[in-house]
Amino acid sequence: MKTQIFIAALFLSGFTFAQEKKNDSVKTQKIEEVVMTKQVFKKQSDRFVYDVAASPVTKGNTTFDLLRQTPLLSTTDDKTLKIAGKNNALIYINGRKSNMDAESLAQFLKNTPAENIQKIEVITVPGSEFQVEASDGIINIVLKKKMSDGLNGNMRMSNSQNKYNGSSASFSANYRKDKLGISANLYGGDNIQAQHYVLRNGNDLSSNESTGNIDDPNQYIGGYLNFDYQLTEKSNLALSWNSNANKSYNSTVNLFNTIKSFDTESQSYITNYTNSRNREDARSYNNSVNLNYELKTDSLGSKLNVNAAYLNYRRFQFTDNKTYFADAMGNDKNLSQTIYQNLPQIINNFSGTVDYIQKFKNDFTVSIGGNFNKTKTDNDTQNDTFIEGEPTESAPNHFIYDENIYGMYLTLEKKFSDKFSGKIGTRYEITNSLGTSDNAAEEYRRIERNYNNVLPYLSLNYAINDKNNISYAFSSRMRRPSFWELNPVRNILTEDNYTQNNPFVKASSTYNQELTYMFKNSYFLIVNHSLFKDVITQVPLQRDILKDRRDANGNPVIDPITNLPIKDSYKQLRYIRTNFGDKQEMSVMLGMQKTFFNQYLTTNFNIGVQRNVNNGSLSVDPTSGDVFPLYENKISSTSILIQTNNTIRLDKKKTWFLGVNYFFVDKQQIELGMLKNLMSLDLSIKKNWNDWTFALNLNDVLRTNIVEIEDYQANGNYNYVRNDQFRRGGTFSITYNFGNQKVKKVRNIEGASDDIKSRTR
């Protein structure tokens, strides 16, 4: 109830500021239409540029809505954005990485009017000056320049209905007065993330099947506060603070387990039933502060940028995992096993970056810089196991992980003529890490890794004529494991099915190549190849273990001859996080971005083919040394990808809009097995009325966005996963913009700890 009261108060409080609206923002409503005279979508050097200021779909949209309609970008969960052919997309603002965690960033994008944006740049292969990992791409949002002093803001309320109901609200404001700029955001909400699982694994002699639901309630609040002051005509000083808190109490797992084992004496299957009743209380806090100094050194755009930051992340997680004997109808019998887990994690990070860009009159640019990150993670975990109420095992593990990263880069960019330009650079990174534990197995006591990486980059762009453009890019990157992946704990789903983190995971390497052809700034062809070395992923290892046979009440079955419990073979399944061989991804994507029927229809359409080549095998659990039957994935697959986003203007005054979005991903081989095809049809209707926007979004209308993975091994083992996250649902939102809509921030600033944030949970 408190959350709903907070949401209502947050939304209604903004009407106080609404009275301060300036006359100039009212006058802008009288502007009927601007006739486009410049290109909306084009290729420039190392990036695609979407000039949204010249696009007919900008008015009344949020930044997130606009990004969803940007060529090459997509979202399947209405939270995260992906670039076609890329694993992930990082958000930059005015060329600097956003200083927000993932939740704050999503709220920021959904509550920033699209009218504030000049253009969106999609960088599929980032240069050496960008701190990115693996095959990540970059979405750079370029805001319009500052125009006037004043106050403006944005309020938004939304209510979503999937399996459960959820609500959220946010309030953001920008204030500009002479040399001082202040921006702030506050958001909050609650939801229940629901999932339904079907898990099957085993072989002809023994098998497990688990079916049931997971419900994860969340209440969250967060925001940011930024101060930016212009010291002189050439220098600025800024201080930024970001905060986010999430509470997830009474998260539950309820799975019904059917365990079969083949009895060689009777030549029949013995079936046992259990219920997994897991409960979890978790909360997390994320706070960061960043101090930035920028100095412009000449009129050509040369500048020095310095950042210093501190990040504190704290997560507390308490779980009790209970296994009950059950009957065939799923009714609980006796309590079999209980595992209590206390899994806290504390991360402290100090970071610094220095970047200098020198521009010359002959279209030559030199960029040089460096960064330093010092991170300490503290994981003081506790596992206590009780069998039939009696304590049997206590497994504390205080794991501390220290990591120091030193990086430097040099990039040279030259425009040789109006047709030909190029960029070459390299990044050199040194990583020193040490993981220690004072109460674990000997192999966990000290895990030290030191490695150096040279990461080259090259891009070339040639404009054949005003209608044809071709470009090539090559990049080498690395991916470090997330801090929670290194924490050697088990995340238990059922008694014999759990995920095992791994402190021995090492960084993986990625090599990306991309060839792009563009015609008339509307049609494009992208050919991409990525090679991943030492891929970081989960590997499903399963083996037979012996356990007591149980009767209908869960009591051991005694052999009348030996007077000992009869043992049966059961399947144990561990998802081990580890480095799993190499992988290649190759894709060919054909796309179009265009408007039709006098701008009544705006569409972007992509169709392509992707080939995955996997080459990995594992038979030993690297965290324990336990030997399993070989798990092997040396299978290739070829799949079709289709995506289209369409906005239809329903009236001449540009107040009604219909959205029709669709994606299809053909079945493809991934590390865990064959991922079956996915698709989703999303519909939306939007009404702009003065400063108000009313929107209704319907997601996964056909209920086809459900994950299914199946795998069959040569040794007879199989594994099947079906995960339904109830993506079909609707969201209704009301957005109100107030104040002087010409107010813009002084600058947007990168935080020195941003690359570390992506590795927290």
TrEMBL record:
<dbReference type="Pfam" id="PF14905">
    <property type="entry name" value="OMP_b-brl_3"/>
</dbReference>
<feature type="domain" description="Outer membrane protein beta-barrel">
    <location>
        <begin position="296"/>
        <end position="736"/>
    </location>
</feature>
<protein>
    <submittedName>
        <fullName>TonB-dependent receptor</fullName>
    </submittedName>
</protein>
<keyword id="KW-0998">Cell outer membrane</keyword>
<feature type="signal peptide">
    <location>
        <begin position="1"/>
        <end position="18"/>
    </location>
</feature>
<keyword id="KW-0732">Signal</keyword>
<dbReference type="GO" id="GO:0044718">
    <property type="term" value="P:siderophore transmembrane transport"/>
</dbReference>
<dbReference type="InterPro" id="IPR041700">
    <property type="entry name" value="OMP_b-brl_3"/>
</dbReference>
<keyword id="KW-0812">Transmembrane</keyword>
<keyword id="KW-0813">Transport</keyword>
<dbReference type="InterPro" id="IPR036942">
    <property type="entry name" value="Beta-barrel_TonB_sf"/>
</dbReference>
<dbReference type="GO" id="GO:0009279">
    <property type="term" value="C:cell outer membrane"/>
</dbReference>
<keyword id="KW-0472">Membrane</keyword>
<keyword id="KW-0675">Receptor</keyword>
<dbReference type="GO" id="GO:0015344">
    <property type="term" value="F:siderophore uptake transmembrane transporter activity"/>
</dbReference>
<keyword id="KW-1134">Transmembrane beta strand</keyword>
<dbReference type="InterPro" id="IPR037066">
    <property type="entry name" value="Plug_dom_sf"/>
</dbReference>
<dbReference type="InterPro" id="IPR039426">
    <property type="entry name" value="TonB-dep_rcpt-like"/>
</dbReference>
